[in-house]
Amino acid sequence: MHPIETLLDSWPKLLDGTLMTLKLTLMGALIAGLLSPGFALIRSHASPLAQAPLRLYISFMRGTPILAQLFLIFYGSGQFRPVLQEWGLWNFFRDPFNCALLAFALNSTAYQTEILRGGIQGVAHGEIEAARAIGMNRLKILRRVVFPHAYRIAWPALGNEVILLMKASALASVVTVFDLMAQTRRVFSRSFDFSVYLWAALIYLCLTAAFVLVWRLAERRLGRHILARQQPRPGAPTPRETQA
Amino acid sequence: MLELLSYGDTGWGDEILRGLAITIQLAIVTLPVGLCLGFMAAFASMSRYRALRALGFGYTTLMRGLPEILTLFVVYNGVGLLWNMLLKWWNPDAPGSDFSPFWAGVVALGMVFGAFACEVLRGAFNSLDHGQAEAGRAIGMTRAKIFRRIQLPQLWRFALPGLGNLWINMLKDTALVSIIALNDLMRMTSVAVGVTKQPFTFYLLACLLYWAMCILSELVLARMEKHANRGVRRA
Asked: Which value does ipTM take for this structure?
């Protein structure tokens, strides 16, 4: 079959899969994004003893394959079925989408925590001292000084992590979540038409490219004060003129 | 519990260790393949010729942007189809043969490793001191000799941390070959789960084994880095 015909034939399935891939990736990244700032603060400020469980968790998540983590949650939960049923959690673990989302969110939390910790530790000490000197309390310093800087520093690495998460989300196909990869395999197993893989590859590349673009725009927005200093807009007053 | 993990007919210890051996074999065979591809791609993307540079850029962008599992399926199914087509063209009577999952794994993981290694090597190459190559040329060394005696030993030092990370990632990615039915650690674990109905125990065991391999790799890599930096003066 001609590759274009393949696409015309299977585009509804591929579109369905793409939306599922996006949903899985974005929800996973978002949950991890909500959890990671707290953890990152513990990693950068708490006592070594308080950090120990967190370090163990991060080391485990980074030292084992995501596929194994996914199986551990999806199939492993079956071993505790009576307990989970008693707690009313069994319906959650029975759904492969929930398990995949949980696995990806837990995995991404570990990576995002480490990335954000690097960002927090990269904030210039003088800025925090200055904030303290003008009487900001600790919460305000975190909100207005530490985190804006930390996110700006960590932004490119966070973007890489989300892309890695999107690539990892293809693993959900193994536990019967019908994402792009699963739909592609389904089409292939029915028609043995190889070109569907190439279309899937193209879709993944487009998703990555679009994401990189959006992320870079956001990066520019986060760093607009620095950008403005480096390259003055035509007609805009130079820093020296503003001072005078 | 211990009975399940024991060695022999009643336990799954030996099966899982055999799977572990396959996983390690796969990773060790993939490493040189990936490194060769990485060096070739790095040379291509730093070449004088625009076509070669475009080729290098295309390869790294493609491989880094695709999910590893998709690459694996493309190689496993695609190369299998291609191989059978060639075989039929060569000898119409030949029986169709399956592409071995082991070699599909080596090729796919090697291609992914090569793409990431290309970027690491290029970065390392760019951080070499340019004056040293010029000094080499000034005393009449050929380009090959400059590369072998001056650039390569230092390239190693700069690239080692990045390549170490890639090695650990690749070690974890080997779990994917279980999906195309290679009897690696992950798949042997799944087989054990199917019989014993103890999924959590066995998948946790697999996780711990992968974890141990990663920690061991990190320790060895730290020593290698120390060794590679032995001649460097510290400020």
From this structure: 0.86
